[in-house]
Inverse folding.
């Protein structure tokens, strides 16, 4: 018998109330993520920054704008994707999320969000979601552009837009990696 898909709105409400790790202590707003339940592409970043924490919405700061620009250039519609991050609460001073925070947020929320959406492709933006979801610690320089299938899910690895924003070489690599999204969807993004 098919198991019931988790309810995305219910997960979002749970995330907004979550106190399962220390990150809830300093957040203003948890950021569940946004996008349609029927999204075929899911983007997973690292963690909300200051602006996201202020407003409770993902990727609305500088790196988010840069991400939107790259997606538009590639003809990929951001509003048809589900966009979230590895952890849903801003770490103090934007430090990297710790292993226990990543594990807790994956087990409580991210895995269920993926099950709710069942995307065709999960794009991992930067090393943090790669470690969290693939348990892979090889350098991103060697991993980016790879498509990995694991437990019935398809992952595409690329850089985080904050890195791409600072280094043109990384932005070029990210564009090239993201071109694979269309191919993975069968050319209909
Ligand atoms: N970086 C992320 O990984 N997520 C956001 O929401 C914003 C910046």
């Amino acid at each position: 018998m098919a198991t019931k898909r988790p309810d995305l709105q219910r997960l979002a409400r749970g995330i907004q109330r979550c106190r399962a790790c220390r990150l809830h202590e300093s957040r203003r707003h948890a950021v569940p993520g946004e996008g349609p339940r029927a999204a075929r592409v899911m983007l997973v970043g690292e963690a909300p920054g200051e602006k996201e924490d202020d407003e409770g919405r993902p990727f609305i700061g500088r790196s988010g704008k840069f991400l939107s620009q790259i997606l538009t250039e590639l003809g990929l519609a951001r509003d048809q994707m589900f966009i979230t991050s590895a952890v849903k609460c801003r770490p103090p001073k934007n430090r990297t999320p710790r292993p226990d925070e990543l594990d807790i947020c994956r087990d409580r929320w991210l895995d269920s969000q993926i099950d709710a959406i069942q995307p065709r492709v999960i794009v991992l933006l930067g090393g943090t979601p790669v470690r969290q979801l693939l348990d892979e610690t090889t350098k991103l320089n060697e991993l980016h552009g790879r498509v990995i299938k694991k437990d019935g899910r398809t992952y595409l690895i690329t850089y985080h837009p904050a890195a791409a924003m600072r280094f043109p070489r990384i932005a070029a690599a990210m564009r090239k990696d993201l071109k694979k999204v269309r191919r993975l969807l069968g050319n209909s993004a």
